[in-house]
Fold:
Amino acid sequence: MFKRIILLISLLGLMIYLQAQALSLTTGNMWFHSCEWGPGAPYIQTNIAIGDTVIDNQTYEIIQNSGTGGFGFYRSDSTKIFYRRSYPPNSEFILCDLSWELDQQVNIGGEIFTVIEKGTMSVFGFSGRQYLTIYAPGNGFIEKKYAETFGQIYYEEFDMGFENPWSQELIGAQIDDISYGTIVSADDLLIEPKATLFQNYPNPFNPETTISFSVTQTSPFVTLEIYNIKGQKIKSLVQNEFAKGFHSVIWNGDNELGDSVSSGIYLYKLSVNGIPEAMKKCLLLK
Structure:
């Protein structure tokens, strides 16, 4: 009887804990995502909470990608996940708010999303997790699904100029010494992307914008190319070897001939050693 009481108290405590945060942020927590991009083999992307820091009187947990070395600052309350970039502009914005209503349009870091699903679901055997799915159309689409406690559990993005979408799905997590789903050891991890591409700033821009990226290898050959929405290459902005670390380049809105391009949406694609790593879009407004 005593053991049953202790077990019930423990389960109750776990249930209360699971309902406490939109995303549980504690140093040492880990999230394992299975990622796919086109015909290549899936790989595991691991994000690790490596410590906290205080910025503008707010405490953030630093979450780092184990493969690329890129990181961001996160904090959370009962319904919201806040994100602060580690590169300019360093302002905070809301990634997800579980109190958003169905069909509501929301601005996330300058991009408009619509809530297309909302309700409760089971995540790794724990039922009743609040969740919502947000969707952004445009030059392709972005779809993200967030669930209470676990944060982002699904992401899919497709941009014109790529033949295949890129997706990731949460397959496991280690949260406060409790294991959920599939826990991947370091020996089982496949090769992850070798670079991180950041959103340009300012965006929209005129006449120039800064594009930043980080590489995790020593002296890889990096290319950064600009495309229009038809998938036609406008300019090769970078074709060089770079030291491991963070780098920035400026695009002044011109093509290979040095002529100014017209207003519109443009894509910039980062490749390392000939392998595409990431693509993002920017908006030139004259």
Q: What stands out?
A: The domain at 195-284 is CATH 2.60.40.4070 (Immunoglobulin-like). The mean pLDDT is 81.
